[in-house]
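We were asked to recover a plausible sequence for a given structure. The inputs and outputs are reproduced exactly as logged, with field labels preserved.

PROBLEM: sequence recovery
POSITIONS: 110
GIVEN STRUCTURE:
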C-alpha cells in the first residue's frame, strides 16, 4: 500500500498558500508550489462550514484515497494543498476523483 507524504506543520501550509498558485473548480481548490524534491507532498483542508466531523473526515478520506490510488499521475516535486468546497459533500468517490484529476492535469499542463 502506497503511503502519501503529507504536509504536517502550519508553516508548510502557509508557505504553499502564500507563495503558491491555485486552480479551482466547483468542488475543490488546489494550491501548488514547487518543492525542489523528487516527491509530491499533500495537504488536505476541509472547513467546518462543510459539515460536522463525520462529514469532514469522510471528505478528507475520499481526497486522500483519490491521491493514493492515482499517485502515478503526480510526477515531479510539488507541495499540493487540496481545499474542499461545501458542494463536495454530495459527491461519491468517483466524482471526487474526477474533479481532483482534472485539476492535477491542469497543473502539469502549465
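RECOVERED SEQUENCE:
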Amino acid at each position: 500500500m502506497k503511503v502519501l507524504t503529507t504536509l504536517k506543520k502550519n508553516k508548510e501550509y502557509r508557505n504553499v498558500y502564500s507563495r503558491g498558485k491555485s486552480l479551482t473548480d466547483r468542488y475543490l481548490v488546489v494550491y501548488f508550489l514547487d518543492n525542489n524534491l523528487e516527491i509530491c507532498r499533500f495537504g488536505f483542508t476541509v472547513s467546518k462550514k462543510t459539515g460536522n466531523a463525520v462529514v469532514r473526515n469522510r471528505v478528507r478520506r475520499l481526497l486522500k484515497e483519490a491521491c493514493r490510488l492515482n499517485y502515478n499521475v503526480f510526477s515531479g516535486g510539488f507541495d499540493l494543498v487540496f481545499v474542499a468546497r461545501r458542494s463536495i459533500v454530495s459527491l461519491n468517490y468517483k466524482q471526487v476523483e474526477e474533479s481532483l484529476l482534472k485539476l492535477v492535469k491542469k497543473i502539469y499542463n502549465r
